[in-house]
């Protein structure tokens, strides 16, 4: 066989192998490629010629957008126009990430969003640059097919005719600004399960009606989120509040915790412990977290109220399996806290279900070590306790930790420098 004949045979064999791949495999391959590389696969085989144009998931990620925008804004917009113009069939997922880019106009983004919402989009992600102010177009609020919505640096201003998202399951809002048409931004989402609010503005205007909510995470809210709208979320299993101040009083937050019978994971920042304790040592709590499995707390151990409330939460979680403590800077001369931690009433009952403990201490202050000692002596099922320290580790502290008595003969104790 001649050299040209051998080459033709090899190319034919390669094309046969490519042509024979199942459609779900080719879809997966193309979805893992950048958009421009996926388009180039049309030359591999006649069967592949139009596959990239029928992909249900269009991912225009940060790298794709950045490279084109660095060439020119017009080139980027033309490329996205062509991708959507040549696309055939429904679009299930659409991701657009233009962070770091400044546009002279956001009209093209409105046009792209209109296109995907008219083509049955279910999972929509818009990560817009903070160099632009992007107000969501009306087409998003009319899109009833949405199941997953992620927004970054957007203005959420629903029209007065907005009826909600009937099929929405996940809502992730980052640096989003809420602007009410009337007195509140009301979002009716009867199927919503996961809600995340990260560094959002105007959350005091937000009213989410989602009785089936299972996970709620709020971080760095610049204004006051009203927690009352979550009182009816009886299925809430994960509840995290971080670096955030609320307008509500202690009673509102306690009522919310009382109203969450299915709660399994709870994270509270030190601000909330301060709010809940009102700087008073509680004799007990008005609620028991019977289903709580994972508790994460940020505690300042030189604040008696925070320390005592943290211990009350631990004691009132009879089925707790995992405990994570983040320690704020602690005054080494916290006499009131040391006296409380040494008292018999501090942890009068064993924590029978607790198996894993992680404590991120600041600088091994006396109160922090006393707290560790109490836990080791009251956890008969403990398997592992990991202690990390933000400052350099101290050999004397390590020896002291090793000498603490342990209720569990199987407990492993590790002490090491903190790592991000």
Structure description:
By secondary structure, this protein is α/β, with parallel strands linked by helices. Among the domains are: about 160-270, no CATH class; about 270-420, Leucine-rich repeat, LRR (right-handed beta-alpha superhelix). The protein is about 30% helix and about 20% strand. It contains 13 helices and 19 strands. The strands form three sheets. Strands 1-2-3-5-7-10-12-13-14-15-16-17-18-19 form a 14-stranded parallel sheet. Strands 4-6-8 form a three-stranded parallel sheet, with no helix packed on it. A two-stranded parallel ribbon has the order 9-11. β14, α9 and β15 form a beta-alpha-beta unit. The longest helix is centred in the N-terminal third of the chain and has 17 residues, at about 5-20. It is elongated, with a radius of gyration of 27 Å. The protein starts with a helix and ends with a strand. The mean pLDDT is about 85.
Structural class: alpha/beta
Number of helices: 13
- pLDDT average, as an integer? 85
Radius of gyration, CA atoms, in whole angstroms: 27 Å
Task: Please state roughly what percent of the residues sit in beta strands, choosing from under 5%, 5-15%, 15-25%, 25-35%, 35-45% or over 45%.
Answer: 15-25%
**CATH class bucket of the domain at 269-419:** Alpha Beta
Biggest pleated sheet: 14 strands, parallel
Share of helix, binned:
25-40%
From the 3D structure, determine the CATH topology of the domain at 269-419: Leucine-rich repeat, LRR (right-handed beta-alpha superhelix)
């Amino acid at each position: 066989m001649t050299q040209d004949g051998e080459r033709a045979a090899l190319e034919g064999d390669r094309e046969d192998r490519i042509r024979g791949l199942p459609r779900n495999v080719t879809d997966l391959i193309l979805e893992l490629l950048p958009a421009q590389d996926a388009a180039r696969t049309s030359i591999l085989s006649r069967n592949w010629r139009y596959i990239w144009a029928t992909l249900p998931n269009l991912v225009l990620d940060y790298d794709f957008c950045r490279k084109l925008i660095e060439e020119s804004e017009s080139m980027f917009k033309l490329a996205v126009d062509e991708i959507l113009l040549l696309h055939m069939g429904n679009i299930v997922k659409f991701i657009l990430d233009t962070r770091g880019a400044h546009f002279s106009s956001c009209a093209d983004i409105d046009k792209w969003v209109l296109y995907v919402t008219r083509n049955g989009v279910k999972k929509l992600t818009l990560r817009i640059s903070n160099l632009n102010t992007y107000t969501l177009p009306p087409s998003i609020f009319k899109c009833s097919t949405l199941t997953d919505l992620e927004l970054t640096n957007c203005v959420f201003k629903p029209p007065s005719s907005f009826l909600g998202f009937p099929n929405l399951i996940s809502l992730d809002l980052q640096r989003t600004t809420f602007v009410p048409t009337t007195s509140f931004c009301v979002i009716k989402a009867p199927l919503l399960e996961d809600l995340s609010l990260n560094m959002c503005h105007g959350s005091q205007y937000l009213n989410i009606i989602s009785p089936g909510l299972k996970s709620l995470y709020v971080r760095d809210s610049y204004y006051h989120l009203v927690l009352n709208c979550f009182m009816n979320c009886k299925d809430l299993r994960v509840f995290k509040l971080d670096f955030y101040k609320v307008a509500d009083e202690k009673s509102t937050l306690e009522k919310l915790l009382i109203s969450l019978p299915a709660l399994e994971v709870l994270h509270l920042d030190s601000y909330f412990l301060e709010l809940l304790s009102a700087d008073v040592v509680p004799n007990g709590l008005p609620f028991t977290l019977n289903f709580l499995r994972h508790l994460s707390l940020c505690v300042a151990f030189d604040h008696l109220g925070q320390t005592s409330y943290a211990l009350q939460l631990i004691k009132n979680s009879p089925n707790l399996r995992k405990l994570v403590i983040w320690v704020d800077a602690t005054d080494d001369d916290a006499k009131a806290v040391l006296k409380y931690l040494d008292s018999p009433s501090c942890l009068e009952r064993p924590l029978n279900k607790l198996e894993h403990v992680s404590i991120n201490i600041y600088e091994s202050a006396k109160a922090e070590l006393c707290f560790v000692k109490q836990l080791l002596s009251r956890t008969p099922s403990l398997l592992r306790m990991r202690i990390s320290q933000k400052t350099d580790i101290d050999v004397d502290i390590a020896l002291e930790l090793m000498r603490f008595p342990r209720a569990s003969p199987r407990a492993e104790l590790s002490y090491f420098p903190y790592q991000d």
